[in-house]
UniProtKB/TrEMBL annotation:
<dbReference type="InterPro" id="IPR001547">
    <property type="entry name" value="Glyco_hydro_5"/>
</dbReference>
<comment type="similarity">
    <text>Belongs to the glycosyl hydrolase 5 (cellulase A) family.</text>
</comment>
<dbReference type="InterPro" id="IPR018087">
    <property type="entry name" value="Glyco_hydro_5_CS"/>
</dbReference>
<keyword id="KW-0378">Hydrolase</keyword>
<dbReference type="Pfam" id="PF00150">
    <property type="entry name" value="Cellulase"/>
</dbReference>
<keyword id="KW-0732">Signal</keyword>
<dbReference type="GO" id="GO:0009251">
    <property type="term" value="P:glucan catabolic process"/>
</dbReference>
<keyword id="KW-0326">Glycosidase</keyword>
<dbReference type="GO" id="GO:0008810">
    <property type="term" value="F:cellulase activity"/>
</dbReference>
<feature type="signal peptide">
    <location>
        <begin position="1"/>
        <end position="19"/>
    </location>
</feature>
<dbReference type="InterPro" id="IPR017853">
    <property type="entry name" value="GH"/>
</dbReference>
<protein>
    <recommendedName>
        <fullName>cellulase</fullName>
        <ecNumber>3.2.1.4</ecNumber>
    </recommendedName>
</protein>
<feature type="domain" description="Glycoside hydrolase family 5">
    <location>
        <begin position="33"/>
        <end position="299"/>
    </location>
</feature>
Amino acid sequence: MRVLSLLLAVVTFTSSATAIVRWAGVNEAGGDFGSKGGVYGTDYTYPTKSSVNYFASKKVNVIRVPFLWERLQPNLNQALNATEFGRLNAIVNYATKTKGIYVLLDPHNYARYNGQLIGSSAVPYNSFKKFWRLLATKYKSNGKIIFGLMNEPNTMPTEQVLTAMQAGVDGIRSTNATQLILVPGNAWTGAHSWTQSWYGTSNAQVMLNIKDPHNNYAYDMHQYLDSDYSGTSSSCNSPTVGSDQLATATAWLKTNKKRAFLSEFGFGANPTCYAAANNLLAYLNANHVWIGYTYWASGPMWGNYIYSVEPKQGGDAPQMTHALNKWLRKHK
Ligand SMILES: *[C@@H]1O[C@H](CO)[C@@H](O)[C@H](O)[C@H]1NC(C)=O
Ligand SMILES: *[C@@H]1O[C@H](CO)[C@@H](O)[C@H](O)[C@H]1NC(C)=O
């Protein structure tokens, strides 16, 4: 008994000491830039090898790669555009196969195609299912892929988000792909508003009804550290704003035995925000219902964007120096 309880104590200690996230990384944006169409390399682009190399040197093990649904599939229900898929696929293969980094695929479409909501007569649920069936067919044998169903559904009934996202899950699983799927909610999938209802029925109530035959999904949430959580200003209200705003979603995840991935968070370059970011990242690593996070954002086309962590002249951005450097390498 004595030996056993000592052993249990050791096991318990070990498991809490290693209660860190599975995935830690960044968004590498650019494939989502411009309106559909646009000139490749001028209006939009996919991550560069040098950027992937830089983040590999920071020990990230996941990059989220945004792209536009309409570019990849110019005609609804039809084949993927081979040229465009080839561009995306080149960097996906480089990251996953050459560098061994997970790629989180992100149709950055706000639950819309050509501005029409999934579930409208122009964009039936089944079209979204077909889109994911096509994309998952391409990647079902690549174990380093994570399927992010959709970026930030908003301004629609939460019940419609559920039906749309279920169609996405069904499309992926119809290929027998088994990889992790990230499921967003309504209201830009904000963690702080997960249990609120100003946007319709709460995500907490509706999104619990998602069904995955492989039970390999996590909720996809976003949380910015600026005062209205919109990711548009460089100020942070307090050093604990991130963990404060994640508290209700975290409690909900624990109660319901679910997990989540924070696929967007961002903060300005100033001391209060650095403190808030360090606090947020410590919180995510300590609460194991959170399985991963990707910072918003890096990418070659940001210019002087307030949250950009794209290295300039090879040097780290201040957010990297003062917060991310310490945490991006913390993953299993
Ligand atoms: C396919 O993508 C290429 C490159 O973006 C583009 O030039 C071409 O027009 C697209 N094809 C269709 C049918 O949209
Ligand atoms: C998925 O697996 C089932 C059972 O093995 C098989 O019958 C089916 O053909 C597979 N589907 C695809 C698209 O590979």
